[in-house]
Amino acid sequence: MRFLLLLHSPRTRWEEVPADGTDEEMEAHVALIGELDARGQLVDCSPLATPEPAVEVAARIPDAATSKVLVHPLLNLEPVPTGPRPATEP
């Protein structure tokens, strides 16, 4: 069985992360992603982009007439690093 987990974080939260990524919460995210990936339980990990629904395509889904169809574009980012992080200078 597979699950989709959506995390709704305020955009400002991620703007606060230092450019070098040294942030306890970010490090915990990377650790969890690495653990799930190592166990073969991670399918994808991508943040959502600004919502601009692809209405034309969504309307063509057969169930769209009787069901809700949510469209969330994904940001096109490099994969989240899951390996050891390089040491940073103090």
What does this structure look like?
The protein has a domain of 32 residues. It is extended. The model has no long low-confidence stretch (mean pLDDT 75). It is mainly α and 90 residues long.
Protein topology:
Blueprint: H1 11-15, H2 24-38, H3 55-59
Multimerization state = single chain
Strand content: under 5%
**Number of DSSP helices?**
3
Largest sheet: none
What's the overall geometry? Answer: extended
Query: Which regions contain 5 or more consecutive residues with pLDDT less than 50?
Result: none
Structural class comes to mainly alpha
Average pLDDT figure = 75
Please state the CA-atom Rg, rounded to the nearest Å: 17 Å
Report how far the terminal alpha carbons are from each other.
Answer: 44 Å
Order of helices and strands: HHH
| Topology, number of strands | 0
- In helices, the fraction of residues equals 25-40%
List keywords for this structure.
mainly alpha, single chain, 90 residues, extended, 3 helices
